Design the sequence.
């Protein structure tokens, strides 16, 4: 369970949405449509345990998500899920990494202030002594063309 | 027993003698025979690794995966306050002012180095450039890369920040940096292989305290480092996980 977003966090005009996660739980979120540009030259990195709970993140991740590091560690990664992201993309992500493979995709993430940022994300299983002990995601800056294509595709998916 | 030591070929030629001095100091301090073999290319260094001729290495981050995951090397240390960052640059007079201005068909020049090569290409992705719409030109030296850019033979060059900063101010004045990487998490690492593992603790202790003596500090400065920071194996495993995402 993730707590609903607080309207006091939001910067700008926002619309309200209720997200339903894969486990059936819900979260009320507010979306402004304001995009934060990707920080040039940087990688946005986070790690989760096998359950998708955030265990580590770098400074770029904190800066872009807009939460304090302490608000992120221990939370499920779907804290950043944006209502424009189709469920199918993440289903594919989890099936791919559970199979021990790398997943790549364009992701629109929701910030604490209701804005968003686009990334090209790769998720890899962390294999130690032959076992998956967690996952690492590394994001980099996507081109506008690739973002536009992903945006169009996601509108057709559920 | 002789430990076979090598250093990733990404350092400037002027430092060759400094690495020999470092090697002599290690031999004396550890009271063990160490043979330093410097390779002039990543290819010949990888051949030596494959042939089992390397027991200790100051490695390019992009070779860490092979060494740790396939050859059983253990993490010892990394340089503190020293990230392996790079610049993408063009000629000062070029109409291109940012990465997104680059067009399909962009011509690149760089020196063969797996880290610079991979990260450089990633820095071009925001312009929708990939292997299918760029032209790569590999050169032997950083100066040659700078000259290709200055002469307009290529549109952009890749270079480690350190190499770029050591170009003469005259050359730098005619160049324009489009982006500087801030990968932070990707660095050279000092690793020890299976044949030298019994010395791993002694090597860690020696490197950890190297900056505490005047002589050690002077050697570090010559190598362009400030001090060594001891690494846990998981630190290197994490870096390898990050690097594994960058090839695709
Ligand atoms: C390492 C890792 C990083 C992830 N990063 C994100 C992310 O940045 N944004 C996001 O919405 N989901 C991310 N996910 C996927 C979430 O765990 C989750 O599947 C997604 O937000 C959708 O929620 P749901 O699966 O409960 O429907 C990540 C998963 C892993 C394993």
Sequence:
């Amino acid at each position: 369970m993730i707590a609903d977003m607080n309207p006091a966090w939001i910067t700008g005009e926002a619309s309200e949405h209720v997200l339903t996660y894969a486990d059936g739980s819900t979260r009320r979120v507010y979306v402004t449509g304001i995009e934060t540009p990707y920080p040039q030259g940087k990688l946005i990195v986070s790690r989760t345990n096998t359950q998708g709970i955030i265990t580590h993140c770098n400074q770029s991740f904190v800066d872009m998500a807009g939460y304090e590091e302490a608000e992120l560690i221990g939370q499920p990664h779907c804290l950043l899920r944006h209502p424009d992201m189709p469920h199918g993309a993440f289903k594919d992500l989890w099936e791919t990494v559970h199979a021990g493979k790398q997943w790549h995709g364009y992701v629109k993430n929701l910030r604490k202030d209701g804005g968003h940022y686009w990334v090209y994300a790769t998720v890899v299983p962390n294999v130690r002594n032959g076992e998956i002990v967690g996952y690492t995601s590394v994001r980099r800056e996507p081109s506008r063309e690739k973002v536009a294509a992903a945006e169009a595709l996601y509108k057709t998916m559920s | 027993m002789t430990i076979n030591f090598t250093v990733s070929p990404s350092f400037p030629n002027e430092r060759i003698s400094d690495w020999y001095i470092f090697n002599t100091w290690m031999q004396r301090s550890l009271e063990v025979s160490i043979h330093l073999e410097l390779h002039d290319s990543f290819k010949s260094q990888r051949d030596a690794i494959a042939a089992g001729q390397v027991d200790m290495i100051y490695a390019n981050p992009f070779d860490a995966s092979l060494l740790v995951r396939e050859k059983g090397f253990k993490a010892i240390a990394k340089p503190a306050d020293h990230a392996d960052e790079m610049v993408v640059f063009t000629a000062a007079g070029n109409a291109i002012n940012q990465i997104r201005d680059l067009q399909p068909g962009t011509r690149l020049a760089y020196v063969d180095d797996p880290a610079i090569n991979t990260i450089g290409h990633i820095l071009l992705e925001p312009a929708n450039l990939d292997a299918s719409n760029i032209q790569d030109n590999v050169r032997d030296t950083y100066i040659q890369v700078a000259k290709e850019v200055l002469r307009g033979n290529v549109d952009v060059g890749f270079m480690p920040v350190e190499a770029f900063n050591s170009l003469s101010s005259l050359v730098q004045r005619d160049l324009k940096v489009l982006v500087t990487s801030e990968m932070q998490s990707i660095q050279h690492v000092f690793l020890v292989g299976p044949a030298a593992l019994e010395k791993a603790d002694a090597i860690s202790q020696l490197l950890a305290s190297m900056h505490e003596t005047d002589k050690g500090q002077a050697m570090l400065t010559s190598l362009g480092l400030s001090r060594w920071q001891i690494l846990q194996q998981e630190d290197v495993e994490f870096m390898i996980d990050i690097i594994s995402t960058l090839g695709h």
